[in-house]
Design a protein that fits this description.
alpha+beta; 8-stranded antiparallel β-sheet; signal; DUF1481 domain-containing protein; DUF1481
Amino acid sequence: MRSFSYRPLFLLPLFCSLCSCALFQKKPETHATGYLADRGVVRIWQHTSSSNYTTLQTLFTPFDGSDESEAIYHWDQDSLVSISKQSLQGPENSFSARFSRQDGTTTFMQQKYATSRQPLTVNELELAKFEAQRVLEVSRDLINGRVELHQGRRLSAQQVEMCDGTLVQFHFTNRENQRLSGLSQQSPDYVAWIEAPEGEQELLMTTRNLCQQQPNYSKK
């Protein structure tokens, strides 16, 4: 009988530990944000899984109409584990690097052009890692400041169909409506803007389908 009476007490800490894990497991978080940089528009999507694995994707659209570029970063806990960058139009130009989760050493690195491939220099690699950390800090600051990115297809002078199908009101200025009307003569026009406690700001107007560029983390 004595051994039986101790058995529930032995199992109790394990049971509580399992319940604690289930109750306090971090929920996945996804945020979309962005800002106007000196040379173009930066759109950012940050997703952190329940296991604290963070994916950060950025799209840079230059004001001068040159090629858009994409960068994707991955962190496991606080350790940077991969970087990939590529040009989305024009000649192929990509960059990729992977790092050990244990000690951060480089396990793979390559810069790829249309006709050649070559390893990265130490300076290029360190600059890319510095940029990854800077982008993560910018993203966190924008999220903490409640700067939210919205994008979708304009239906009328004051209405936008978001990428998830919901309809929202956005108060375009007369100048913005004139620009969008010019785009509409060719094909459907898409808009991206940010919303913050201070107000709204238009980021991008284009005939490209912005919703196709938006990552989907719903299954992650």
